[in-house]
Write the structure tokens for this entry.
Amino acid sequence: EDGYQLWLRYAALPQAEATALSRQAGRVLLPPKAGAMAQAAADELERGIAGLSGRKPVRGSTWQGPAVVLALPGQWSALQLLDADLKALREGGYVLRTMTAGGQRVTVIGAASERGLLYGSFAWLRALQTGADVARLDQRAEPKFVWRMLNHWDNLDRTVERGYAGQSIWNWWELPDMRSTRYRDYARANASLGINGVVLNNVNSKPEVLASDWLPKVAAIAEELRPYGQKVFLSVRFSSPKELGGLPNSDPANPAVRAWWQAKVDEVYRLIPDFGGFLVKANSEGQPGPHDYGRTHAEGAAPMADALRPHGGLLVWRAFVYSEADATDRAKQAYQQFVPWDGQFASNVVVQVKNGAIDFQPREPFHPMFGAMPKTQLGMEFQITKEYLGFATHLAYLGPMYEEVLRADTHQPGGNGPATVARILDGSFYGDGRVTMMAGVANVGSERNWSGSHFDQANWYVFGRMAWDPELKSDAIAREWVQQTFSVPQPARESIVQMMQGSREAVVNYMTPLGLHHLMATSHHYGPGLWVSELARPEWNPVYYHRADKSGIGFDRSARGSQAVSQYAPAVAARWGQPATTEPELLLWFHHLPWDYKLPSGQALWPGLIAHYDLGVQQVAAMRARWAQLQGVIDPERFADVAARLKAQERDAQWWRDASIAYFQSVNGLPLPAGVKPPALKLEDYKAHKLHYAP
Ligand code: BDP
């Protein structure tokens, strides 16, 4: 068990269930003119049934004996009754039904198109492993988002920005001639979740990715992912017309620039007819963009959007922007740069917004742009790779974090029903058939276990499941992941789920409790850097975010401070505008408060803050103890790997706790409350602790 199989291990079922399964699924029926996706579905059914039951099914197309039937409308006369149901399914949707038809007991995996057959096959295999009564199945499911995407931050030299799982899986140098078998396995894993778009390269893009001699490499990957229903996208550099095309500028108003994009896009589609589109990071962290020419983001997006539209291509334009010009509050800038241009983006543009207004912190309030641009198609960008949550070293299951953001009520007007982030993003709030999207920054690399640590596989998994349906619950998803990933009996399974569910809050507690944020060490973001104050831009420094001084701590974003709260709908702005009505989890995000401010717990802020740090350390210790109890229950290889990581996490949690307390004490000069253990070292020692060559 080295983790390579992910959640697709298909470990043998207990004997009685295995026998029942091979009886029920001894044959897989495939329609006569099956295409690549239906073939891939049948391949997976074979693989899964063989693993789970111990017997490989026979593939066929004649109606005879119990079978699993892949069904599209009009393809099986015995299933005519289902046709109307199947036709009504959204692209990718499926039904799973056990029934008697044409005199045979069959399991129908039905859909309107082959894509649904693929997703339905994976869903049926998942049901088999997660205790569903497969002899009496009647399920129907449809994806809630049009686009369910992974964003790789993979560079063309195979390094990965914020990647903690080894080199990029794309072996660009060897492509297109050599094609790793990993590409198919990666595509299978994505397909099992319903992911249908993959951006291959880093948002900090290079012009070469669009070079004529590079594109065949892209086409080769597209070919590998196609049978599994994923389209390939590229991150492109705004200045490509100048840098790659040799034009004098990349001004979107320049007709030559528009023509260049058109010709380039046409070239891409000649090679890859089902190419997905582009992702663009513009005027952000030094990347070129339309502001370089005095144009807006909407104007900057237009030439690429216009070039892609005739081919059915999508342009994803990122809202992760903050400019040097105005450092009053970085959290306000994306809203300021985008919201006034609501309605000016083309119909094939999605503006991709990070879940919070700063940057993938362990906890952030939802981004104020959600619901604030009703005439613009907004997409979600979550980070799956744990840049600010301890890399692949720390165990933090992100399901509860995604859930918290998706469930948040924006209270924005202009739609029907609750204005939760999920309903705004999946379009149900607006009900106007818009293009919807949820993207996650991938945590996949070429490490044997794909994600650097076994539990980080769960973050890939939960992202994909929530991109399919943002209303799914994080604990239910953890449960199904555990059941497929570890062959362990109850109560061990539930113990792992509990450990996962609490893990992200533990990280919040030992790193950034009570709404603190961005206190990580410079550039790599691993470990504490609360004291850092000398970086070139004010908003790169942790002191900018915590604002701790003798009188208090926290970023005042209320009406008395930066007024960032005013970017939210009135009900939310009112709640977060006052400390008394702001939940403790977000208190110091929105308010600067005296050290003796009374928390709802009754504690004063200073001892309350310390209590969170201590709790975080205790929570990690408890996770370790829980895991230790599973020795002999979990396979030894994975057990040992996780145990080693938890040990490192406990050390790091202590480091965060000690360094944070030492620093804040140096600022406020307050004594430690009775019974609190002083930090092990002096502040100077924590400051001197540098990490070299962190990934
Ligand atoms: C930050 C990362 C940086 C990314 C940037 C982005 O530190 O590496 O390039 O986000 O999303 O979180 O563009």
Q: What stands out?
A: Residues 161-162, 203-204, 281, 284-285, 320, 359-360, 387 surround beta-D-glucopyranuronic acid (CB under 6 Å). The longest strand covers residues 94-101. The chain has three domains: 15-141, 147-485, 508-555+592-688.
